[in-house]
Write a structure and sequence with these properties.
- Helix content is 25%, strand content 21%.
- The protein is an alpha/beta fold.
- Helix 5 crosses helix 7.
- A four-stranded parallel β-sheet has the order 2-1-5-6, with helices on one face. A four-stranded antiparallel β-sheet has the order 11-10-12-13. Strands 7-9-8 form a three-stranded antiparallel β-sheet, with no helix packed on it.
- Among the domains are: 110 residues, no CATH class; 50 residues, no CATH class.
- It is built from eight helices and 13 strands.
Length: 282
C-alpha cells in the first residue's frame, strides 16, 4: 500500500487521492509532533520514530508531500524553540530513505530537486534532453546589471515564481535589487500538462486551444520525471505558432492541474511512485 506523508489538508493531490478508490495510507506530519525533541548543538533536533511507524514506511512506496509545514503543530513547536523547519526535513530523511520508492525527495525550495528555481530547472532539463526548448534568460550576480541584449521582450521575475508570466507578483524587494533575473516574456498559447506515474500525460489550455506537438510533450514529461525525481507534477508550456513547445516551469504542487475537469479521475488511475534508477542527492 502506498503511504502519503503530507502536511497541508488542502493539498490538491491528497484531496484527489482521498476522494478516489485506490489503496492509500495517509500520514499527517502532526502525528509526529510529540516525537520531536529539541537538542543542543550539533543535534539541534531529534525525532523518535516509533517502530510501528518505521514498519509502515519501510519497503513501501511513499509520496512525500512535505513541501511546507505552514499551519502545522510541528512548525509551531519548531518556531517556539527557534529551530528552522529544514531540520525537520533533514531528520525525516532517514525514514523516507527506507521506502521502496519515493515521489518527491526531501526538502524545501532548492534543497528538494522537485522544487528547483527556474534557472536550475531549465539547465537540468536542457542537460537531460536537448529536444526540450526553454526560454531565453539573463541572470546577474549581486548588484551587477543584467545583460538583456539577447532578450526580445525582457521581464524581471523571481526565480521561485513558477506561473506568473505576464505580470510578476512574487518579486521580493531583495530580488528586485540583487541577483536580478530576466526572461523573455512568453509568446504563444499557455498549455498546462500534468502527469502521474507512467500514465500518458493529461493537458489543458487555460484559454483557447491550439494544435501542438504531442510527441514533444511526451518527451518533456519523461525528462521531467527523471530530472525532478517526481512521479507526479504539472508543467507549464507555451505553444508556438508552428505547434512547437517551450517549457517554462515544473511544479509538484498541482495547484493549476487540480482545477481541470477530470483531474481526480486521472489521479485515481495512478498506482503510486515507481522506483527510480538513481536516488542520489540533487
Amino acid at each position: 500500500m502506498t503511504v502519503v506523508l503530507y502536511s497541508q489538508e488542502a493539498d490538491p493531490l491528497v484531496t484527489a487521492l482521498k476522494a478516489g478508490e485506490g489503496e492509500w495510507s495517509f500520514l499527517h506530519v502532526d502525528e509526529l509532533v510529540d516525537r520531536l525533541r529539541v537538542k543542543p548543538w550539533p543535534t539541534i533536533l531529534d525525532i523518535i520514530i516509533p517502530g510501528a511507524l518505521s514498519e509502515r514506511i519501510r519497503g513501501m512506496p511513499v509520496v512525500n508531500r512535505l513541501f511546507s509545514f505552514e499551519g502545522t503543530a510541528c512548525l509551531d513547536k519548531l518556531a517556539g524553540a527557534r529551530v528552522n523547519e529544514r531540520w525537520l526535513h533533514a531528520r525525516l530523511d532517514s525514514l523516507l530513505a527506507s521506502a521502496s520508492a519515493l515521489a518527491h525527495d526531501t526538502g524545501v525550495r532548492g534543497i528538494s530537486r522537485s522544487l528547483l528555481p527556474l534557472n536550475a530547472q531549465w539547465f537540468c532539463m536542457r542537460t537531460a534532453q536537448d529536444a526540450v526548448s526553454i526560454p531565453r534568460f539573463s541572470y546577474a550576480t549581486g548588484f551587477e546589471e543584467s545583460n538583456n541584449e539577447g532578450l526580445g521582450d525582457p521581464m524581471q521575475k523571481s526565480i521561485w515564481s513558477l506561473f506568473d508570466w505576464k505580470t510578476e507578483r512574487h518579486l521580493l524587494p531583495s530580488e528586485a535589487r540583487r541577483h536580478r533575473f530576466f526572461v523573455d516574456r512568453p509568446r504563444g498559447m499557455p498549455l498546462i500538462s500534468f502527469f502521474a506515474g507512467k500514465q500518458s500525460p493529461g493537458w489543458v489550455f487555460p484559454r483557447e486551444t491550439t494544435p501542438f506537438d504531442h510527441h514533444a510533450l511526451n518527451i518533456a514529461v519523461q525528462a521531467a520525471r527523471r530530472v525532478f525525481m517526481s512521479d507526479v507534477g504539472e508543467m507549464l508550456f507555451y505553444v508556438q505558432p508552428d505547434g512547437s513547445l517551450v517549457f517554462h516551469a515544473f511544479s509538484p504542487h498541482l495547484l493549476s492541474a487540480a482545477k481541470t475537469p477530470g483531474f481526480s479521475a486521472y489521479i485515481s488511475g495512478w498506482q503510486g511512485p515507481a522506483p527510480h534508477p538513481t536516488r542520489e542527492p540533487a
